[in-house]
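In response to the reviewer comment on reproducibility (Comment 2.3), we provide here a single inverse folding case reported in full, input and output, so that an independent group could reproduce the run without further information from us. The structure tokens appear first.
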């Protein structure tokens, strides 16, 4: 039942995507000048792509068919990249990172929660084994060094012996004072009870008065309990306190976790079967259909030889391997069509040569200037146009494959949603044909030479020496360039392994263990009045949800998907600014948790005294970036980055700066005077 439900969801999402692609292709061609209209158009496309992304991510996580998952993954990466492209378009248009869509959400009848960008689960699923191994190695290194990064939350400061004795004395005197106060209280209560007993004496209290007193106490106790219960219910209703069974895991959640675990196992099994079938089916096709494919290709090429000879009087030149061999000639064309194309190309080349000779240089320059002025005037008149997209073509290809293969496919026989062997045969036939074509091309080249010698009695023309010399010169230039680049990118740690560099960074505290924090734990509310405030020329304060969305777009999605990272608009660094306690460090750790990235801490307080001098700084950066590239994805965190740009040091920071400079002066004795002058200034 679940597979049919998610198959329906996939079909609906694909239909929505195809209609959106058609609309976007129409809008891209039209020029626009009204900035408000342009932003509304970009924002509507952005919101609709986010809805498609949410559905596709859910479908990809639930479907177990391996061939469907490959196609959905391709479209999912394309949609992710397109969202980032549209975000970049809006940023360039409005020159701000924060955008508000409350008016559009009302028009589209969507809740603000539906605008939240999900983090695909495959980011961690595909790297789960690698992340676990890395965590084991990190924990082992920390255990060997006697340092546990998870337990250490605050830095430990060394204090002198006298100060430590004073702290112990204060704590001990406070403990003794508390014990003495408790003892005096007990004595006071005993004396009070003795005095009350003397006052009452042997006077017997009335039974009714005693009952009333008991009732008063009991009713007061009941009323206080009732008030506490009502107060707790009110706080739960208002959302200020969690419900009583909030932390307890229910039976439905346990069952859902079992189902997800079983589904993950089925997905893994189907993928392994699919990979095995790719090899076995190709081997079977080699044995059964390989000889027939070879014979058909040879006959086709021989027919082409004979027909070209009959029409042109000479045998044709065989295409080179770099050009693609015979695959270029017979790409859905008959031999006659191929010959007609060759004749037409020769005629075009001759006509172009004649035109070039006839043209004068003066007229060419004038025409170029005219064309440039015309293009400039056209750009000014046309107005704004959407920049070309890299991911639209990818999504269109995926939607075309869906229409041709999966839209009307009958899968009544495939109840368990295993791989389709017929689809694998079609793919592997093409691969096998291309492999056999390379072998056939070698044979047919030799056969063509023999035919030319036997029938036409043509001699092989000698290869021109000028090309060889030119090629040598180019190679020399390339070699020189490589030598220059080698000097710049010199490997300072060529004799060391990545494992040893990794261990060194962990021991020095530069590579730290990220805290297990999800980005969803960064809770915030949507800005409901963002658009209305901007209409009155008031810039709204970004909410926590807006910050979380930007971190997801710029930090998590490019790190999680390699395809998106290569082609999407590049964001090299993020600046998280704000007062202490708003969650900047939490967001850094959340990015690493969601993507399984390594965390390098290059804060000034962390690197002080670890790699002294200019050569040490160069070595530190080299080691960090080398390990970060080899063990991607990686995050480099620089805390308190604003302190490096101080023009005048505040009084609170002056003591810390003095300590750092004293340590630095011990390593750089030649720079004592300028540094001291700067400090005194």
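Designed residues, in position order:
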């Amino acid at each position: 039942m679940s597979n049919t439900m998610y198959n329906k969801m996939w079909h609906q999402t694909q239909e929505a995507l195809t209609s959106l692609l058609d609309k976007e292709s129409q809008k891209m061609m039209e020029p626009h000048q009204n900035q408000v209209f342009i932003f509304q158009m970009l924002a509507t496309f952005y919101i609709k792509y986010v809805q498609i992304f949410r559905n596709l991510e859910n479908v990809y996580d639930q479907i177990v068919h391996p061939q469907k998952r490959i196609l959905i993954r391709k479209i999912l990466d394309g949609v992710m990249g397109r969202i980032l492209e549209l975000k970049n378009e809006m940023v360039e248009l409005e020159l701000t990172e924060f955008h508000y869509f409350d008016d559009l959400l009302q028009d589209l009848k969507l809740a603000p929660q539906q605008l939240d960008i999900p983090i695909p689960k495959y980011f961690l699923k595909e790297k789960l084994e690698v992340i676990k191994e890395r965590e084991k190695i990190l924990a082992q290194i920390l255990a060997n060094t006697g340092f546990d990064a998870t337990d250490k939350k605050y830095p430990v400061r060394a204090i002198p012996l006298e100060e430590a004795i004073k702290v112990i004395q204060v704590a001990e005197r406070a403990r003794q004072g508390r014990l003495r106060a408790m003892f005096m209280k007990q004595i006071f209560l005993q004396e009070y009870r003795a005095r009350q007993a003397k006052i009452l004496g042997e006077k017997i209290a009335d039974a009714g008065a005693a009952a009333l007193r008991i009732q008063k106490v009991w009713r007061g106790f009941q009323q206080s309990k009732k008030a506490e219960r009502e107060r707790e219910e009110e706080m739960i209703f208002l959302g200020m306190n969690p419900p009583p069974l909030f932390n307890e895991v229910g039976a439905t959640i346990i069952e859902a976790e079992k189902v997800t675990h079983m589904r993950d196992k089925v997905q893994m099994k189907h993928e392994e079967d699919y990979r095995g079938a790719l090899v076995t089916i190709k081997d079977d096709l080699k044995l059964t259909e390989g000889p027939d494919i070879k014979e058909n290709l040879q006959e086709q090429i021989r027919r082409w030889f004979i027909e070209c000879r009959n029409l042109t009087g000479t045998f044709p030149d065989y295409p080179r391997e770099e050009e693609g061999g015979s695959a270029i000639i017979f790409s859905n064309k008959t031999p006659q069509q191929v010959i007609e194309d060759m004749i037409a190309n020769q005629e075009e080349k001759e006509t172009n040569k004649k035109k070039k000779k006839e043209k004068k240089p003066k007229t060419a320059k004038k025409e170029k200037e005219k064309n440039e002025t015309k293009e400039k005037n056209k750009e000014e008149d046309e107005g704004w146009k959407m920049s070309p997209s890299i991911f639209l073509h990818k999504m269109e290809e995926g939607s075309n494959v869906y229409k041709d293969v999966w839209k009307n496919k009958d899968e009544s026989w495939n109840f368990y949603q295993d791989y389709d062997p017929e689809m694998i045969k079609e793919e592997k036939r093409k691969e096998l044909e291309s492999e056999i074509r390379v072998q056939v091309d070698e044979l047919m080249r030799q056969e063509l030479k023999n035919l030319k010698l036997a029938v036409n009695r043509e001699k092989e023309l000698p290869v021109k020496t000028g090309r060889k010399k030119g090629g040598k010169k180019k190679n020399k230039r390339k070699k020189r360039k490589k030598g220059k680049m080698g000097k710049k990118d010199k490997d300072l740690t060529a004799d060391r392994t990545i494992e040893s560099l990794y261990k060194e960074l962990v021991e020095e505290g530069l590579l730290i263990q990220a805290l297990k924090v999800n980005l969803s734990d960064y809770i915030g509310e949507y800005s409901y009045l963002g658009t209305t405030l901007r209409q009155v020329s008031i810039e709204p304060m970004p909410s926590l949800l807006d910050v979380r969305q930007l971190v997801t777009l710029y930090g998590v999605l490019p790190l999680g998907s390699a395809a998106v990272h290569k082609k999407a608009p590049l964001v090299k660094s993020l600046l998280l600014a704000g007062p202490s306690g708003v969650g900047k460090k939490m967001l850094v750790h959340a990015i690493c948790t969601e993507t399984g990235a390594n965390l390098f801490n290059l804060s000034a307080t962390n690197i002080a005294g670890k790699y002294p001098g200019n050569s040490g700084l160069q070595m530190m950066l080299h080691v960090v970036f080398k390990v970060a590239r080899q063990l991607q994805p990686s995050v480099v965190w620089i805390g308190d980055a604003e302190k490096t740009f101080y023009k005048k040091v505040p009084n609170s920071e002056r003591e810390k700066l003095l300590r750092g400079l004293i340590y630095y002066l011990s390593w750089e004795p030649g720079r004592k005077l300028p540094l001291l002058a700067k400090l005194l200034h």
